[in-house]
Amino acid sequence: MSTTPRKIAFIGLGIMGSPMAANLVKAGHTVTGYNRSQPAIDKLVAAGGKGAGSVAEAVADAEVVITMVPADPQVEEVVLGEGGVLENVKPGTLVIDMSSITPQTSVKVATAAKEKGVRTLDAPVSGGEAGAIEAVLSIMVGGEADDFADAKPVFDAMGTTVIHVGPTGAGQTVKAANQLIVAVNIQVVAEAVVFLENAGVDLPVALDVLAGGLAGSTVLNRKKANMVNREFAPGFRIDLHHKDMGIVTAAARAVESPLPVGSLVAQLVASSRASGDGSLDHSALLRGVERLAGREVN
Q1: Annotated active-site residue in 43, 175, 223, 243
Q2: Distance between CA 269 and CA 273 in Å, rounded?
Q3: Distance between CA 279 and CA 270 in Å, rounded?
């Protein structure tokens, strides 16, 4: 149990947010959750948390507010909008956005919060649904060092690699790089899978061997079963990775950094989404490779 229990409001109880909030409860914090769908709130209550009927109700007495929503528009609505976080929190509250958004939106949120005496951190995560459930997320944090130190015990209840990477927006920049690496890695694993199958090799055995050598990666370990079994229930949807590839492409252009391979993979992610796979896990990039190989994909 945490040595210093905190009153935490958690906004956004989706695939990632739900287990993250549950792990905060397990660590001894008082967690009040809000989500647009009631079943997600009920799930948190069943795990020992509390439910709220609105953002305002959730954050009213919070010392720490965590937001975990899909994209920039939702962050702006929840934090900056009417009835949102900044209208309803007390000065001195620490607002931590753990969504994956543009660095520019993180700066916009921090600027608005500062005017109200509210502290902020941008703290996107990597590790997917499994990492969230197991509380082994990698958390990359941008903001003031003192605020990071204050939040560190909260982060430790959700992740095992928790690092302050720089000022406001830096967490989102590092997350953009993470999403670039993950997308490229998934794509080449998918290409290897089709290559191995076309060559008649025992796929599970081959992937086990590859995972033990230099080709091994967390992506290969986490996603090989999805690909072998063609099971693509969303841990992280292609729709969201498409959004993230837009973020990294724009961010790289802003700092004049070339993305020759990343730009191609961004197009392949977009193609998978356009083919109707947006709601599937990003390991379903395999389906795009299968289409290119002339296979019938159901």
Answers
A1: 175
A2: 6
A3: 12
CA–CA dist 210, 80 (Å, integer): 47
Residue 2 has pLDDT above 70, yes or no: no
pLDDT per residue as tens digits for the range 239-276 = 999 999 999 999 999 999 999 999 999 999 999 999 99
**Quick one: angle between helices 170-198 and 285-292, nearest 10?**
40
| pLDDT tens column, 66-99 | 999 999 999 999 999 999 999 999 999 999 999 9
Compute, in degrees rounded to 10, the torsion defined by CA atoms 206, 207, 210, 212: -110
Other Cβ atoms closer than 10 A to 216: 14
Question: Backbone phi, then psi, for 10, in 5-degree steps?
Answer: -120, 115
- Whether 175 is catalytic: yes
- pTM confidence score: 0.90
What are the beta bridge partners of residue 32?
9, 50
